[in-house]
Amino acid sequence: MNHKIAPSLLSADFGNLKADIDMVNKSEADWLHIDIMDGVFVPNISFGFPVLEYVKNLSQKPLDVHLMITDPAKFIKEVRDSGAFMMNVHYEACIHLHRTIQQIKEAGMKAGVTLNPSSPISLLEDIINDVDMVLIMSVNPGYGGQKFIEHSIEKVKKLKELINNKNSKALIEVDGGINLTTGKQIVEAGADVLVAGNSVFKAENPTQMIHQLKHLD
């Protein structure tokens, strides 16, 4: 399996953030996943761009920034300046999604689109060739530690089929309830990137857990 691992900073110890980022730097993780929440689009608030600036200066991994906010297009410049290589916006939050994708790419970043658990894959048919990645939420966005939604496996299979049928190069990322069991199921279904929060940062040995998630064969 040749998939990527993106530990989710949302589950890190914010009282000891530098140590957790250092751990990720030294691990086999490929990216660092960062969730920005506004308390409006999702029922929680995480952190803003000053914290992201701090993270940029510490992280040696590419920053995969997931905006769970209303009107994310307003913050393209801030996300770019914070060092993100991937800006991920929710389909449900973008009225003019194609324009937003164009603006993200014009800013020099890769563009990702996220689908909530209740949003069908069919919504992406007209945009799949324009995006670099699709993030499937396998829990309801807003909180870490939720139970994996089993239907997400079939959803990944449908997305993989759409990507192949349209000759798209989009990656498939999955976030929510990822552990050694669900991670293997999701990768076998066609996922390219696993976002793991609690399973990594709450593990007795986070570095070893990242290694195990990276090598699920």
From TrEMBL:
Name of a matching Pfam family = Ribul_P_3_epim
Return the cofactor note field.
Binds 1 divalent metal cation per subunit.
**Per the entry, which co-factors are needed?**
a divalent metal cation; Mn(2+); Zn(2+); Fe(2+)
Residues reported to bind a divalent metal cation: 33, 35, 66, 175
**Sorted alphabetically, which keywords does the UniProt record give?**
Carbohydrate metabolism, Cobalt, Isomerase, Manganese, Metal-binding, Zinc
Binding positions for substrate per the UniProt entry? 8, 66, 142-145, 175-177
Catalytic EC class: isomerase
Query: What SUPFAM superfamilies would the database entry show?
Result: Ribulose-phoshate binding barrel
Q: Give the InterPro entries listed for this entry.
A: Aldolase_TIM (IPR013785), Ribul_P_3_epim (IPR026019), Ribul_P_3_epim-like (IPR000056), RibuloseP-bd_barrel (IPR011060)
State the pathway, as annotated in the record.
Answer: Carbohydrate degradation
**What EC number(s) does the entry state?**
5.1.3.1
Q: Answer whether the UniProt record assigns the keyword Transferase to this protein.
A: no
* Positions annotated as active site in the UniProt record: 35, 175
Task: Spell out the reaction equation it catalyses.
Answer: D-ribulose 5-phosphate = D-xylulose 5-phosphate
The Gene Ontology biological process terms listed for this entry are: pentose catabolic process; pentose-phosphate shunt
Q: Which GO terms describe its molecular function?
A: D-ribulose-phosphate 3-epimerase activity; metal ion binding
Entry similarity comment: Belongs to the ribulose-phosphate 3-epimerase family.
NCBIfam families in UniProt: PRK05581.1-4, rpe
PANTHER family for the chain: RIBULOSE-5-PHOSPHATE-3-EPIMERASE (PTHR11749)
Q: What does this protein do?
A: Catalyzes the reversible epimerization of D-ribulose 5-phosphate to D-xylulose 5-phosphate.
Q: Could you identify this protein by its name?
A: Ribulose-phosphate 3-epimerase
| Taxonomic source organism | Coprobacter secundus subsp. similis
